[in-house]
């Protein structure tokens, strides 16, 4: 790793014909011919092209929470079923706490190095060409897999609402097309409202299920005389245990996306505020929904969790959640490929044919790969576990530990609090080691689960027409 002193960078440069200003003082959509923003990532941004620096901190909260809650909350009750309530809640809080730290490191690193747009740029800064390509590939695969799980979740919702109105493979295609259309919106400032709508719909739907299982004292599909068989503590196998940790990491691992969120904020100094609000909100929702649904449903809990309260509530919950599931299909790495292809070119911030052709090609390509993943690994909980282990832990843990060392190594002999530096150094070494272990062990556990689910068959076979909403 190359040493580099951290830079104190607050806001991007803004040049105009009259004076210098701070980008936060310009309202989105209010650029004039005399106002040209120069951004270290996007270059010169004027009125003739999209304004990429248009997201306020409240909009950032919505984007953060939607990125996590959209799919992560749907797998929490099933995760508690594998390990028990107490270990599950402890693990969830621990993973959420680590995610808060790693995300904070990303925000600080981005502000110290404003030229960084994504994990690939951070990897290139720390490890050169190899680091750039490895982290860039992992980042792309991660968000394509996330979009694939969103497509799968939306197909499950369409099946539930329509009572399996047509072949599941058709619903997967419809979900992919919807994701492509919404993902083609170019700037986060214009898509943040979709995040808020999606977040509200997902939160409402899971609360409906949570209340329903409490009122019904369990799922309506339970046999006569059944009582909840929840466990305070369970003894999972090693594969089951690491799969649960991987699932929880997926639920809290929006960290790799935060570089691009900071890059499109009007004032990146508010990133930490947005992070704390979003992390507290999502963690509290996770704990409440996970504990209540599992407490009443026990081993009859469904994954995704919206099917846990019986046929009628399942239809209502999935109907409410459709906009949120649709929003989850838009989480694609299209912008990463787009910026990398056109960075340094005037086409990046113009409305030229090259701009639009490149943008739509990137979006379509990512959507097609996500569609193949959704069709090829059609088991929601297993897919979530695989994403969390193989890519979520790898991207969220070791790189952020390295980022801290990259910016702080030069301070080890100059700080007036050497003990605190050593404690943070040990903590970040732990983050690196933990991420590496979860990546290897969690991937093993997820693959074991996928093989088991595919053997059981039913609605969980690749490219099947069978109903996939009954799991």
Automatic annotation (TrEMBL):
The chain crosses the membrane at residues 85-109, 134-156, 162-182, 194-218, 238-262, 274-296, 316-338, 359-380, 386-406, 427-451. It holds the Pfam family Aa_trans. This is Transmembrane amino acid transporter protein-domain-containing protein. InterPro entries: AA_transpt_TM. The keyword Lipid metabolism does not apply. Belongs to the amino acid/polyamine transporter 2 family. It is a multi-pass membrane protein. Its main location: membrane. Signal peptide: none annotated. Keywords: Membrane, Transmembrane, Transmembrane helix. Residues 56-447 form the Amino acid transporter transmembrane domain. It is found in: Membrane.
């Amino acid at each position: 790793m190359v040493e580099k002193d951290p830079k104190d960078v607050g806001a991007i440069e803004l040049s105009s014909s009259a004076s210098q200003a701070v980008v936060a003082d310009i309202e989105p959509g209010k650029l004039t011919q005399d106002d040209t923003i120069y951004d270290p990532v996007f270059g010169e941004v004027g009125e003739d092209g999209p304004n990429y620096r248009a997201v306020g901190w409240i909009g950032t909260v919505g984007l953060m929470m939607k990125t996590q809650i959209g799919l992560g909350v749907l797998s929490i009750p099933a995760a508690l079923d594998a390990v028990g309530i107490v270990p599950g809640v402890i693990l969830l809080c621990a993973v959420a706490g680590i995610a808060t730290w790693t995300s904070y490191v990303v925000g600080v690193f981005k502000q110290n190095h404003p030229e960084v747009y994504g994990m690939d740029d951070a990897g290139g800064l720390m490890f050169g060409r190899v680091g750039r390509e490895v982290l860039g590939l992992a980042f792309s695969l991660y968000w394509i897999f996330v979009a694939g799980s969103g497509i799968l979740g939306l197909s499950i919702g369409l099946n539930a609402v329509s009572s399996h109105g047509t072949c599941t493979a058709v619903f997967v295609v419809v979900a992919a097309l919807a994701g492509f259309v919404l993902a083609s919106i170019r700037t986060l400032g214009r898509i943040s409202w979709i995040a808020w709508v999606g977040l509200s719909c997902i939160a409402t739907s899971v609360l409906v299920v949570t209340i329903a299982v409490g009122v019904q004292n369990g799922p309506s599909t339970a046999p006569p005389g059944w009582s909840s068989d929840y466990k305070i503590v369970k003894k999972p196998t090693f594969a089951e245990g690491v799969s649960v940790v991987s699932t929880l990491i997926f639920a809290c691992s929006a960290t790799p996306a935060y570089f691009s969120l900071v890059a499109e904020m009007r004032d990146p100094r508010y990133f930490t505020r947005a992070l704390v609000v979003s992390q507290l909100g999502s963690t509290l929702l996770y704990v409440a929904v996970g504990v209540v649904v599992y407490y009443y449903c026990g081993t009859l809990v469904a994954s995704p969790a919206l099917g846990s309260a019986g046929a009628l509530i399942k239809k209502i919950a999935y109907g409410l959640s459709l906009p949120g599931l649709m929003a989850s299909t838009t989480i694609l790495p299209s912008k990463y490929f787009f910026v990398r292809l056109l960075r340094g070119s005037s086409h990046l911030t113009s409305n030229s044919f090259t701009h639009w052709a490149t943008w739509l090609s990137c979006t379509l390509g990512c959507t097609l790969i996500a569609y193949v993943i959704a069709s090829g690994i059609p088991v929601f909980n297993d897919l979530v576990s695989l994403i969390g282990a193989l890519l979520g832990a790898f991207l969220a843990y070791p790189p952020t530990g390295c980022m801290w060392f990259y910016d702080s190594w030069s301070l080890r002999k100059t700080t007036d609090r050497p003990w605190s530096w050593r404690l943070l150094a040990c903590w970040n070494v732990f983050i690196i080691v933990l991420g590496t272990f979860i990546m290897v062990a969690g991937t093993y556990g997820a693959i074991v689960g996928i093989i088991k689910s595919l053997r059981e068959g039913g609605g969980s076979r690749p490219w099947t027409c069978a109903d996939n909403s009954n799991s």
